[in-house]
Amino acid sequence: MPWIQIKLNATNENAEAIGDMLMDETGALSITFLDAKDTPVFEPLPGETRLWGDTDVLALYDAEIDTAAVLAQIQASPLLAKDFAYKVEQIEDKDWEREWMDNFHPMKFGERLWICPSWREIPDPTAVNVMLDPGLAFGTGTHPTTALCLQWLDSLDLAGKTVIDFGCGSGILAIAAIKLGAAKVVGIDIDPQALQASRDNAARNGVADQIEVYLPQNQPEGLVADVVVANILAGPLRELSPVIKSLMKPQGQLAMSGVLDVQAEGVADFYRDELDIDPIVEMQEWCRITGRKRS
């Protein structure tokens, strides 16, 4: 049968509360969060939402609902402004699991590296293949920020080097670094769920013995690496710049993403005191900032 979808514009501050309201008060059957760039944000466990940027909330309803009554309920909520933006659509009936799976294909990054979902055939068995299925922790290669970091890792000679993945999420960058030749990779994340996702994905790729993951408060004292990659957000990249720089060996290399084009120079300025910054690379309004730490 068909479905009715109502899309509301929200912010990272009120999106979760709006989602709860739609489920509890208006009878929504499911809630999906999308960031302002139309990138899916997988729905997390209660209390663990980490949405970034302005957020759209998509609510799915049975086609028999009284749409006008639902919109009136939504409008009466103090969570939304009186003139809130919304869109109502009829969605055809589909095999949603198959539809979701069909959206993910093997993707190539740089010259050697492929990210492949488990249900697809590997395009090039001789390439560097990372098997990774979309899941709760951020990072599948579909977003420009992840793609930019994967391309950068593919361009490096990582043989024998130590890599730190700062904000490791799903572990996609850590696993790619290992498969590209790194001797050891350390993943750091504030979310225990991300650490578990990184462990699981590393085991799935046969590299569990080469990756260590830590909450920031548990990471080894004096930890440094030849290569550091941080695919997080502009705010944390600015605020944590002393921490990130301290993780780099002299002449170590750094790549940062999760930064919009209008934010890139400002973020880079927080690192110029210790790093020689390369030209900034842009993809679909998102940027990668790279540099080398001076001796």
TrEMBL record:
Catalytic reaction list: L-lysyl-[protein] + 3 S-adenosyl-L-methionine = N(6),N(6),N(6)-trimethyl-L-lysyl-[protein] + 3 S-adenosyl-L-homocysteine + 3 H(+)
InterPro entries tied to this protein: Ribosomal_L11_MeTrfase_PrmA (IPR050078), Ribosomal_PrmA_MeTrfase (IPR004498), SAM-dependent_MTases_sf (IPR029063)
Family under the similarity heading: Belongs to the methyltransferase superfamily. PrmA family.
Keywords: Cytoplasm, Methyltransferase, Ribonucleoprotein, Ribosomal protein, S-adenosyl-L-methionine, Transferase
Enzyme class: transferase
Purpose of the protein: Methylates ribosomal protein L11.
Protein name as it appears in the record: Ribosomal protein L11 methyltransferase
Gene: prmA
Example of a GO MF term: methyltransferase activity
Top-level taxon in the UniProt lineage: Bacteria
Swiss-Prot/TrEMBL GO biological process terms: methylation
Xref: HAMAP family: Methyltr_PrmA
Cellular component terms (Gene Ontology): ribosome
